[in-house]
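name: query_chain
kind: protein
chains: 1
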Amino acid sequence: MAEAHQAVAFQFTVTPDGIDLQLSREVLKHIYLSGVTSWKKRAIRFKNGVLTGVYPASPSSWLIVVIAIMSTMYARIDPSMGMIDRIKTSLPVSEFMTVQTQTVLSAILFATGLWLSFIFLLRYILKALLSYHGWIFESHGKMSFSTKVWLSLVKLLSGRRPLLYSFQASLPHLPVPSIDDTINRYLESVRPLLDDEQYKQMESVANDFKKDPAPKLQKHLKLKSWWATNYVSDWWEEYIYLRGRDPIMVNSNFYTMSVRQLVFNLSALDMTMKLIALGIVPMCSFQYERMFNTTRIPGIETDFVQHLKDRKHLVVYHRGRFFKVWLYYGGRHLWPSELELQFQRILDDKSEPQPGEIKLPSLTAGNRVPWARARLKYFNEGVNRASLEAIETAAFFLTLDDETHGYDPENIRSLDLYAKSLLHGKCYDRWFDKSFTLIVYKNGKIGVNTEHSWADSPIIGHMWEYVLATDCFHLGYTAEGHCKGDINKSLAPPTRLQWDIPKACQVIIEGSYMIAKGIADDVDFHGCLFNEFGKSLIKKCRTSPDAFIQLALQLAHYRDKGEFCLTYESSMTRMFREGRTETVRSCTCESTAFVKAMEDERTTVRQRLALFKKAADKHQNMYRLAMTGAGIDRHLFCLYIVSKVMDIDSPFLKQVLSEPWRLSTSQTPQQQLNLIDIQKFPKYVGAGGGFGPVADDGYGVSYIIVGEDLITFHISSKFSSPETDSFRFGQNIRQAMLDIRALFNPKEKKM
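structure:
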């Protein structure tokens, strides 16, 4: 084959005079260019490391300080108060180190020390300023004098053009709430769910815990908060995600979808991230570090996350075959047109899967222990090890799906099937352990399935927004639908990964597949596009859109099940270093009072509206508390971990952590980068994503506020539960949204 010949770097012939090497100039050229690219990357990393390492100062400020110190010395002024002379006396004298050289070097060393001290001082001041959260609790449009001063100081010290990781060293640590505050907030959160007798019992158990062993556990937790970067995140990743032995498909992984078609422009994934901030307050960026070249590796007792610095290939799955595709050629990224060529070669490949290859990915969809044992026994040597290593070290995993999916306005079930496919597929055509699997369907629709341990949904949402904007407005396609650019037909074709999977391993693969299929078949999903009104109208009602939606969910759930339940809403804590999430307990005394009023015909519109505003204000306040480190659940979770380590039995903590979340909700952030004008290009915006139900008899609801007039709900539950029906719940959500809207204009709807 011509491609095979091109891949040979040299040939040799044995002659009487020795070995005659015949080197391929073309291949050597590519080797040289690859080396140049590698060094360029190192140089860029070094440059960014320096810029981030000295932030909020800049490298040029060091030169200014050095010049200033040298100038004062020539003016016979010693700003160092004798320190330069002391440094000078410690330097050795030699023919290469004259007295004048010693003086200059001493001044430079002093200036450098002064400059570094100034950087640490700026960071300390900035960290103290970013620890202030009074601004978030102030009414919209109103700003106190102290907040104005704070705002000016933050702007002054924040520097210009920060990179993604510039603020990492200046972010404050997540504070540990007091025991009293956490327990009081917890009791307040469960009050609407318990009758008087149950509440008194819970109050008694909580007060006993407060006396003992809470103080002892709190002391150890505070010690950890002083020592560790974040007192929650490492335990959260380990105990919530990596130690779980159940399948991660549906139960942990989540998906993201797009209503836009994307053909082959994976060059959009070559990202240069910008800093995400809440106003002028920077968000922690540590989760972005493991976006690419990352895989969850199964273990017997616990998994671990493997992250590699740099990898130059991806692995593609198509019709039961695995292909390795290089992302570089001649020291550069492949152009979109070249990627299209490589993927077309895979689509045109007529070879058959090897024994056991088709359903091999189902090992990542089933229980973790069988997968861990199979990996150790059957994938630890030979071609199996090499092929598995290619998958686990790939930048990411790509599935060229042979099905057609996407949103079709004429097919009410199209969004449901699209979401189910992204969430679990056929249970054997996604590598659920990869940081993310990019899925491209036959009709050009795309989506992502994300492993949850390494990051939360806003991170993948950030990437998704960047990909869509880059693909739509920078790369583009020809009139025929092909990627723009030339094609280098001398590219070596994708490489088939080889497998030698014994019968015993195939039995394990089939077992994992059957477990995964049972889970997938039980997922009842409904996608609800609510376009009657959106963010624009809600804001005119002087209400937070998130609070409005959460109260609608409470009303919908009460109508659906006839009762209230413990409700989980995810809130981010990324204003703190290595912060991830906190729980907002959306079912409150205020929200239940509002819902009961909506269902009581005797209440007037004015009474309902007053209760709504009170409940919305309560929700906003709880959300702000969660964002600023004063939540309930992460603190109790960490206290529980400490109690287990110390072998202390706590009935209170056991009960708290065993309570089921029958309504689990999350908002997908939109327009984090403001790269797309939604009003002009509504079809180029992501449609959000979703996740599987958390409780067997509960609902999972993810929603995204798209532009001004659209809200998309992704609703999941289980067919096996007689209490739930995702389509029914979607209809209840729609009606609840309309009924709450009518409170602000009673003429629109008869109550």
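note: The first strand starts at residue 10 and ends at 15.
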